[in-house]
Sequence to fold (192 residues):
Amino acid sequence: MNGTATGQALSWRAHVGITRLHGGGAVPDPATRKESEVLLSSLNGQRDHVLGILDGLSDEDLRRPVLPTGWSCLGLVQHLALDIERFWFRAVVAGERVDLPSGADAWQVPADVPASAVLEGYRQEIARANAIITATPLDAAPAWWPEDLFGGWRLDDLQQIILHVIAETACHAGHLDAVRELIDGRTWMILT
Fold:
């Protein structure tokens, strides 16, 4: 690894509480952090990945579809802000009545909405979600559950919801990695 890649790898490890490697495996920081702090750190790492992989893209590149399904990077960020952060934390966990898009509306960014507004909207939803996460016990049941949307499937507490959102955000960060590499060859972090 070159110096930059090593620095990225070390900062990533520090971000998730890993201070050294032992025999090829990670050794967690001996000063054990609270589970909620570790979960939030992991979630924030995925959120940072989403924003980081898009850094430096032009407005045109943020808006243009690259894959056959037709979504844009900006549409995916708006989906994460509205369908993921706002939905799961503000509506489900906190029980807040919020405007939620229907169908694929969250994926569509009108031409007159600046890219910076969508990215800032994502950051604002993250800040609101983080406030809810830090004020809510991990074993707290959702304040609201959309039975009509999910039927019998249910996440029982904040811990399960955070894990679900980590997986969802990480999946979409991977989508953005692939699209960014197709646009200009830039990659986020590749550990080999």
